[in-house]
Amino acid sequence: MREGATGHATTVHPLLQNFDEYGWVGGAWRTMLDKREMRAALPKGTRAYAWVLFRPETEALSEMTRLVELGRLSLPIGIRAPLRDARDAFDHMRRRLPGRALIVP
Q1: Which of 36, 55, 74 is the C-terminal boundary of a domain?
Q2: Same domain? 48 vs 65
Q3: Domain residues for 28?
Q4: pLDDT digit string (tens) for 46-67?
Q5: pTM surpassing 0.70?
Q6: Backbone angles phi, psi at 104, to 5 degrees
Q7: In a 10 Å sphere around its CB, with 0-12 CB exposed, 13-18 middle and 19+ buried, how is residue 89 labelled?
Q8: Helix/strand/coil for 64
Q9: Cβ contacts of residue 104 below 8 Å, gap of 6+?
């Protein structure tokens, strides 16, 4: 993402956890509310917010590792939080603190 971008990348869409916690209808509703809350918390002038789903690819990850080792690619991490403390990571983003927010299992 470009400098100053606000986003969220995950291999597990929040909808799945919301289904587990609130059931099918309640989970879908909770996911819509979550997205609305995140959009409302975005800095003024931000036009879009979306969850991104991806599947890791060995070749792409190897190339990224090579570029990191060469010093041609960096991703400064401002906070690393376990999933149970994900709100801390989102708070980091809302406060526009330096570095990316990384949520780990």
Answers
A1: 55
A2: no
A3: 8-55
A4: 666 777 666 778 998 899 889 9
A5: no
A6: -120, 155
A7: buried
A8: helix
A9: 80, 81, 82, 83
Residue 3 in domain: no
Q: Which residues pair with 101 in a beta bridge?
A: 79
pLDDT over 90 at 6, yes or no: no
**Beta-carbon neighbour count of residue 14 at 10 Å?**
17
DSSP for 65-95 reads HHHHHTTS----EEEEEEGGGHHHHHHHHHT
**Is residue 104 domain-shared with residue 73, that is, in the same domain?**
yes
Distance CA 43, CA 48 (A): 11
What is the rounded radius of gyration, in angstroms, for the C-alpha atoms of the chain?
Answer: 15
**H or E element in which residue 101 lies:** strand 100-104
CA distances from 94 to 4, 55, 100 (A): 12, 27, 11
Q: Both 31 and 63 in a single domain?
A: no
Q: Hey, how many other C-beta atoms are within 10 angstroms of the C-beta on 85? A: 14
Extract the tokens encoding 21. Answer: 């916690």
